[in-house]
Amino acid sequence: MELTPDELAGVVDVVGPVTREELVQACGELAFKRGADVDSERFEAGIEAALSTYHLVAVEDHGAAVDASLVVVGPAAFPALVDGAEDLPHILDVPDRDVPEDVAAAAAEQRFREDAAEAVRAGDDERIQALLDVSYDLEAWGPVELATARGHLDEATHAN
C-alpha cells in the first residue's frame, strides 16, 4: 500500500505531530486494516518523498519530551483523509503534542534554504522551479520571509 503525500499529511493531520517511526506504524495499521502488505521501507520512502515536497515538515527542536524529530503537516499539503485514518488516534499510543507554528515555520525555512542552495549548486532547474513554487506556499503557511532566497533561485534559472 502506498500513500500519496497528501494522504500522509492527512494521517498526520488526524493523529497530530508524530515521529517518523510513529507515522510508519500508522501506515502499517492502515495497510493491515485494508489487508494490504505492511511494507515499512515503502512507507519510509513515501515519508521522505513527502518531506522533500514540503507536504510534511520535520521539526527537530520542538521542545517536546521526545528525542526524535516530529513530523507536521507542511505548507504544500492538502491533507486527504484516508479510509480508517479516523481510528488511528485510538489505535496508536501517541501522546498529544503541540509544535508551535513559529517553530515549525523556522524548521521549514531552514530546510528550504538548504534545499535551495543545493539545487542552485547542482544547477537542477526542475528542483529550483519546484522550490520557487513552494516558497509562496511556505510564506503563506508560516512566519517566514523567503524573498531573498527566491531571488537567488530566480537568478539561477536565468543563468542556466
In short:
This protein has 160 residues and is mainly alpha-helical. The protein contains seven helices and two strands, in the order αααββαααα.
Which CATH first-tier class of the largest domain would you pick?
Mainly Alpha
Question: Main beta sheet: strand number and arrangement?
Answer: 2 strands, antiparallel
For the largest sheet, list the strands in their spatial order: 1-2
What is the end-to-end distance? 39 Å
Q: What is the average of the pLDDT values?
A: 91
Beta-strand fraction estimate: 5-15%
- Which of globular, elongated, flat, extended, rod-shaped describes the shape? globular
Give, in order, the helices and strands. HHHEEHHHH
Named CATH topology of the largest domain: Arc Repressor Mutant, subunit A
Number of helices: 7
Describe this structure as you would to a colleague:
The protein has 160 residues and is mainly alpha-helical. It has two domains: 5-91, Arc Repressor Mutant, subunit A, CATH 1.10.10; 101-159, no CATH class. Helices cover 59% and strands 5% of the residues. It contains seven helices and two strands. It has a two-stranded antiparallel sheet. The longest helix has 22 residues, at 101-122. The mean pLDDT is 91.
Highlighted features:
Arc Repressor Mutant, subunit A; two-stranded antiparallel sheet; 59% helix; 2 domains; mainly alpha; globular; 160 residues; single chain
In terms of topology, how is this protein built?
Elements: H1 5-15, H2 20-34, H3 40-52, E1 56-59, E2 70-73, H4 88-91, H5 101-122, H6 125-141, H7 147-159
Antiparallel strand pairs: 1-2
Helix pairs in contact: 1-3, 2-3, 5-6, 5-7, 6-7
